[in-house]
C-alpha cells in the first residue's frame, strides 16, 4: 500500500515536471525582458521612455505675428488683429453637478436675450440656434457670420455677463485700417482653416515669405496631478514675428487721391480709372490708386483683382507725343516756329492719310501743333525729320519695350507695334502701340528730371521687428538717360504752353491755383477687336500727364479715365481734370512745395445778390467789385435773365451771364461748351452743337440782335469723335 502511494507521488511529480520547467523558463525570460527594458527603455523596438514622456509632455505654441505694412511716415496700412469666434456648449452631460456648477447653456432664453444685442443677431435667432443644437444632440453650436470676427470689446462685454456654457476661440485676422485705400498695391491676406494668414494679392502676396513669422513653443513634463516636474527643464523655442514692410506711399496723399477717385467713380461711372503720383527725382511712388477697387476688410463682389497701372496695357494716345517731341529736340531737327499744313498727312506708303481731329487749322507752327495735339505734326516729325529707325531707338531708350522693374507683382508690358509705315506713324501719336501707365510714368520722369529716367519703386525698406535690423532698403536708381538736360527743359516749356496758351488742349481745364503746370492731354481710342476701334463720344481713354512746378517739377502725376458717362455738355477731360487738379494742388501743398505763381488766385464762396429787374450798370459794378467775372448780353438798361439765381452760393471763379432786355449776340469764341449752352438756354435759342471743348465758330455773328427761337450752330475745337477719320493698320 505504502509502495503504491510512493509510486503515485512519483508519477505526479513527473507529470508536473514539464510545467515547472516551462514556468521557470518563462520567469527567467520575463525577468530578463524586464531587466532589458530597465536597461534600454525599449520594447520590441518601441521606445517606452519616449512614449512615457510624450504622455507627460505639454507643448504650448506661441503664435508669431505677421509683419505689418506701413506708409513712409510709419502709419499702419495692414496689421494682424486678434478676433474671437463665439460658441456655446449645449450638452447637459458637460455639467455633471448642475446644482453646484453649470458648464453648459441651461437657460436658452436668458442667454439669447443677453447675447443678441452684442453680436447683432435677432434674439429669437440666437434662441433657435441653441435649442436646435440641443435637440439635434450636438455638443456645441456656433452663431454663423455674426458670431465670428468679434472684437476684444465685444468679448469683454460677453465675459462680464458670466453666461454658463459660452466660450471663445481666439483667431488671427488681417486688418486694413484704411479700407479701400491702395487695395491693389497693398493687396489682400486671409486666414485659412489652420489659422494661418497667407498673402493672396499685392504686396501681401509678393512678400508673403518675409511677412510670415515663425511660431514659437514651450515644452515641459507634468506629473499625474498636472503639475510640472521639478527636475525637468522646460524647452523654449522663441517665436520670430514676420518682417515689417515700409512703403513709399504717403497716407495723406493717398487719401486725397482715393477721395477724388471715389467721387469721379460715383459721378461719371467710368469703366476704369488709374492715377499715380510719383517723385520724379527719386522714383518713389507717393500714391497709386485705381477703380474698380475693393475693401479688403469687406470684399463683397470684387470685379477686378489686378493693379491696372502695372498689369493692363493701353494705347496711350496723345500723351505719347511728349516723347516724340523729345526725340525731335534731342536730334536737333525741331524748330518750333517752322510751319506745316495741318489737317491730314499722306505718304505713298499708306492708303489713307493720317488725320488731325480738326481740319480748319490750316498752316500753323509746330509749336502750335503740339499745343493743339496735332497728329500730323508728330507724324511729319517722325517720317521727315527724325527718321523711323531713329525714332524706334528713342522709344527703346525710353524703355517702352521692357518692364519698368517696379517692385510690384504681376507687372506686364505693352507692345511696340512698329513694323509697317502706318504703324510707325501711328506710334508717333500713341496709336497702335500699347504701354502700361507705369511705363508712361517711368518714361516721363526723364522729362521732369533733367533727362535722367528713374526706376519707380514702392518698397522703401523691410525691417525685423525682433531685432530692429533693416533687412532690405531701396535707393533711387537711374534707369537711363534717353535725353539731355537741355532737351528735357525744352519739352517742359512746350508742355507748359499746352496749359497756358489759348490754343492748348489743357488750357482752362487743367490748372493749379498756386503752381505753374506742364502737361499733356490724351484721348486714346479703344480697340474693339476684329471690328476695329469703338465709336461714340464716350468710348475713349481720356488722360493727362502733368508735372509741377513746371520749371523744376517736384511731383509728376498721370491719370486715365476710361469710358466715363458724360452729359451732352461735358468733355471727356472733366473727370480727368477733377482728379488731377484736386490731388496735385493739395499734394504739393502737403509736401511743403513753395508756390511759384506770382499771383495766387484764392477761390471764395459768396451769395449771389438780387439782380433780376435791376439796373444793368449798377449790377455789373456790384458783382465786379466782389471779384465776379461778368458777361453782359445786350445793351439794355435792365437785367432780364441770368445763369445764377439770387441767394445761390457761387464761387469767385464762376462766370455770371447777365441778359439784358435788349439782347445782342456776344462773341463766344473760347467759351466752354457748358457756358455756351447756358447762354443759348437763357436766350431760348434753337441751338445745335458740333464737337466739344471750347467754341471756335458760331453761326450768329457777334453784335446781331436776337429773338427767342433763333437758330444757332455752336462749333467747338476739342476732339470730335464723330468727324475723325480712323486710321487703318496695314498688314
From TrEMBL:
SMART domains in the record: PASTA
Record-linked InterPro entries: Beta-lactam/transpept, Beta-lactam/transpept-like, PASTA_dom, PBP_dimer, PBP_dimer_sf, PCN-bd_Tpept
CDD domains (alphabetical): PASTA_Pbp2x-like_2 (cd06575)
Keywords in alphabetical order: Membrane
GO cellular component, one term: plasma membrane
Family annotation (Gene3D superfamilies): 3.30.70.2110, DD-peptidase/beta-lactamase superfamily, Penicillin-binding protein 2a (Domain 2)
Primary location recorded for the protein, binned into one broad class: membrane
Signal peptide, first to last residue: none
Catalyses which reaction(s): Preferential cleavage: (Ac)2-L-Lys-D-Ala-|-D-Ala. Also transpeptidation of peptidyl-alanyl moieties that are N-acyl substituents of D-alanine
Record-linked PANTHER family: PENICILLIN-BINDING PROTEIN 2B, PEPTIDOGLYCAN D,D-TRANSPEPTIDASE
Protein name (database record): serine-type D-Ala-D-Ala carboxypeptidase
Taxonomic source organism: Halolactibacillus alkaliphilus
Name of the gene: pbpB
